Amino acid sequence: MPLQASQQKKASSIRSAAVIGSGVMGAGIAAQLANAGLRVLLLDVVPQRLTEEEERKGLSLSDALVRNRLSASAIAKMPKAQPPQLYEPAWVNRITAGNLTDHLVALGDVDWIVEAVVERLDVKQEVFAAIESARRPGTLVSTNTSGLSVASMIEGRGLEFRRHFAATHFFNPPRYMRLVEVVPTEDTDAEVVTLLTELCEKRLGKGVVVAKDTPNFIANRIGSYGMLVTLQDTITYGLTVEEADALTGPALGRPKTATFRMLDLVGLDTLLHVIDNVRKRSEDDAEQAIFARPDILEKLVAMKRLGEKSGAGFYRKIRGGDGRSTIESLRLDTLEYGEQSKVSSPVIEAAKAAKGVALKAKALINSNAGHKHAKFAWSTLKKTLLYSAAQVGVIADSITDIDRAMRWGFNWDLGPFELWDAIGLEETVTRMKKEGDTIPDWVEQWIADGHNSFYLESEQRRYFAARGGYSAEEQEEDVISLAALKGAGRTVLATSGASLIDIGDDVVCLEFHSHSNAIGGEILSAIRQSVQEVSRNWRGIVLANEGRNFCVGANLMLLLMEAQNGEWDEVEEIIRFFQDSMLRLKRLDRPVVAAPHRMTLGGGVEACLPADLIILSPETYFGLVETGVGLIPAGGGCKEGAALVAARAKSAAGGNGSARGDLQPSLNELFETIALAKSSSSGHEALRQGLLRPQDRVIMRQNTRIAEAKRAVLELDRAGYTPPVEERIRVAGSEGKAVLKLAVQAMQLGGTISEHDALIGGKLAHVLAGGDVRAGSEVSEQYLLDLECEAFLSLCGERKTQERMSHMLAKGKPLRN
Ligand code: NAI
Prior knowledge:
This protein is α/β, with parallel strands linked by helices.
């Protein structure tokens, strides 16, 4: 029965929620709801016993402090959680603690109730009975089960409840993992599925896959199967756990935690629980055999080796006599721990040398096919592909649902069908058949019909559809795919480091695609060419990309070489080229909108600052971190920072020309941010760190960033865009510099920074304050750029700066010297 129009809700009308269960997932979900601006009531059970501390304080079991203890302590941990759960620590105020006994009636006041209590059917059933007694008709209710039967949980509940109920299966940690599986039952109203999907996608910024009510749904079903066969094959092929991890991680486009490190994180007892769930609910003998409990897992769990939470699993960390910790691995035959062996083989080397997941996976299985590493890789991969294919129509209606679930829920670069296409559908199926494997009928038929891939890549990707032929993949609303546009021939110009792509409506997007998206000559040349092209032929430009990170900074390699050889003219040329490219972008007579995501550091920030508007993703780690490599920002970062300080002082003084405000407070803040190489832990935090303007903003849905930026370009263009004119910048001068230098001295005396940090701090103070001019002087942009260049050059000549750069290039982290 469809909902009455009056009962239909919009995702935007959901303002409040209650989360039941304040454990790992309940707390994480509550935080993500708070991130989306919802008011959240977090409830747990009433404790049965007092803690020692509560006794000492003279509290009793009837005190609210005790009764709300579980959820209150979960809330208290949130602002300091690592990795952070909240975009802003202060948003913890959106969450209120309570307990399910005293605050049951409060469930009548919320719009959405999310259950996240322990994974036990009987407990969940009881909780839903209680919820039903308090909830108001029309309120959404969802369960965060990992894979219990959704329908069984609500047996005995009334129809009105059942129509508003489904699973919303978040992945851990809810803030960072993109997937939510929405699992309706037969009774769930279609409008409720749509509403929950919209809520999760649009309000919470998640990626939704609608799944069937089968054991463990999609991602955990395929994922746990993959772990089981990898474990079996590791034993069959006589491999060590570290060898198996080297072959099932990045070489297959999967996270570094690969198989065994991932298992340790998940918990070996949890995996047993997950596989029991499939086996017990399955009526198929073959499936039951696959999901039998592996001997070794039972033994390890019996020995309390549960993985990271118990300190040992397939790996364990031990502290040596010298206080250093090392990680040992488990010998699968003796169950003893020992030093990890160095893993190397022609197979692994071939995969490392190959570029991109497709070529890496091909290298793994084909380059040395007789090697045990290749045999193992092929065996585990083949089984996972065949199992996934056999599940189409069973656990999911389409291959895209399976691929999305594995990409978003397990962080695989490619889902099983995408990976299968990448290694060659027809040739691998021929090989599987030769090896006696059973191929699912639909795959055989698909190939017999003349198809050699599950997907057809084009502007709108098409995929295998059960009823024959390809179907257009449902596009997520407001998502622009640069990869698809490039595939459809929409590249306007390209260098080895960047491409300019036509994203429609006469707007282009400049996409970086160098290694780690570090900025070098190729990207700067692309920026200069793009400026010319856009000025002539387009309405505006977006700076965004689909890399793992927006940009990790400037490429230090060339810079370090020139510095080590004392080629100062060359170093200066590199800086001037960077500065000039940024100025051209700033002066472009068309709107420029930057849409960074994830790591946006150093030169990456400097590339955003010339934009008219910066639209940040919630997961943006934004910071001018040059001091970490012994340098200061010199691609215009300090100049733009100084301009922001002046603008802030002016607006604090009411924006009127005669009272232009005190520069020092903002200058101090900016100095601290850059000197301490701070980067934000979210887009929201970045807005507060002094490098952004009032017009800059954060969006909730990271994958809509390119579409949002394009929309902003069009708005600016429609409003009659004119580029910013060069303004003179009011600086704090020698007086302001003296204040900053005093702070540096105090930190050095206090032992919190090194002598080299102090040297860098002094140079940074000089540039940000505008050098030795009088306080309140107005200087040109070029003057500040010259100061940046001079300070940068002198730091490049310092041995300790060169050591910092080499360390960063070799180890990927900063050296403190
Ligand atoms: P947890 O053990 O960390 O937390 C469970 C919480 O539920 C505890 O705070 C407990 O006091 C509370 N609780 C127990 N009975 C209750 C009751 N009758 N009323 C109110 N609260 C009650 O468990 P976790 O890991 O947070 O799991 C919760 C749910 O989320 C489970 O269904 C689990 O399968 C699922 N899940 C877990 C994931 C994970 O990685 N931990 C991932 C995705 C789903």
